[in-house]
Amino acid sequence: MQAHTIRPERYGPPLKAFALERVTLPPVGDDECLVKVMAAGVNHNGIWAAQGHPVDVVALQGGGGQQQGFHIAGSDASGIVVAIGEHVTDVQIGDEVVMHCGWWDEDAVDDQIMDRSAKIWGYEVNFGAFAEYTRVKQTALLPKPKHLSWEEAASYMLCGATAYRMLYGFAPHTLKPGDVVLIWGGSGGMGTMATQLVRAAGGIAIVVVSSEEKAAYCMENGAHGTINRRDYKHWGPLDDLQDSALYHDWMMEARRFQKEIWRLVGARKNPSIVIEHPGEDTFPTSNFVCAPGGMVVICAGTSGYRGTFDIRYQWMRQKRLQGSHFANRKQCEAFNALVEQKTIRPCLTRTFEFHELAQAHQLMFENRDPMGNMAIRIGAGNGA
């Protein structure tokens, strides 16, 4: 089959790392399926895999006895089941499906993404979506919403299910009507999904963007209000709390940011939930503006992995700091049902051809990607 592979000698920017080559079809286990990939989604897993950092994705395979010398990335896809393993009962050959990236053993705990066996397909597990065929666990297959194109169906699951878990997975800090939710990167894949989920629940989504164009897009997508991060200058680690001048300057900007939230909400009301994924640059502000008794839930660190903050506001205001990683099976099903019901739309804004895959990832790598989600046309571009 044709596949875009990543090899250790090419680790680096996506334009260097990805190469189209012919490889052998992957083996299919007893609880796995072989799926003809019609389209695949673009997300940061492909960026990290291309760089071989923070995880060497090819070396990682050696621990599982699956060393191939290459890695096929891609953690979002839609397609058609063409073969099934001996123990597969949930799907049939010919089913049109959406694939989520959760990979775990058949006997995994109920919250499967917390199981010791849990991995991310297309990142920690080889033979992801960026090929003509892929292998997935039967538990990772969900019905393709009938009203969506293959490209739309391939674009939403990773970001959407991740946002769903962040908003509903950690009781009692679950999304309720009237809750203010602060969402970083509101025009991106994660932000567009989280904003729609907040709106659908009757919450108040305040999203952070970097341009007026992105602000307008977010308002069309259901945001209550937007904040342009370029209007503030306090981003980055909060390194030295003992330097009173530096801390004063940081605090003045953080308070100004907080007051803008209040202005947009129309009341002196802080976010009950903060959807955090930039990490290093925004983490101090997220913890500061979070409401007393509220929760900062973090799923990534796209600006860096060092988390710094003034812990006095953490214990005195009794705030919760919660890590979150993708989603479990029930959460994926629940989110997909919202898409099937047309409550959530995929927000697909650009589609690339298969040979343009590296270019699509390079745009994301350079932070020049379009608003919303991107997809790669694979089988759907061959007369299917």
TrEMBL record:
Q: Per its record, what are the GO molecular function terms?
A: crotonyl-CoA reductase activity; RNA binding; zinc ion binding
Keywords attached to this Swiss-Prot or TrEMBL record, sorted alphabetically, are: Acetylation, Cytoplasm, NADP, Oxidoreductase, RNA-binding
**Protein EC:** 1.3.1.85
Q: Where in the cell is it found?
A: Cytoplasm
Q: What class of enzyme is it?
A: oxidoreductase
Enoyl reductase (ER) domain location is 12-376
GO cellular component terms given for this protein: cytoplasm
Checking Gene3D superfamilies in the record gives: Medium-chain alcohol dehydrogenases, catalytic domain, NAD(P)-binding Rossmann-like Domain
Name the Pfam families for this protein: ADH_N (PF08240), ADH_zinc_N (PF00107)
InterPro entries referenced in this protein's UniProt entry, alphabetically: ADH-like_C, ADH-like_N, Crot_CoA_red, ER, GroES-like_sf, NAD(P)-bd_dom_sf, Quin_OxRdtase/zeta-crystal_CS, Zinc-ADH_QOR/CCCR
Q: Indicate the quaternary assembly.
A: Homotetramer.
Question: In its UniProt entry, what is this protein called?
Answer: Crotonyl-CoA carboxylase/reductase
Species the sequence originates in: Pseudomonas parafulva
Point out the gene that encodes the protein. ccrA
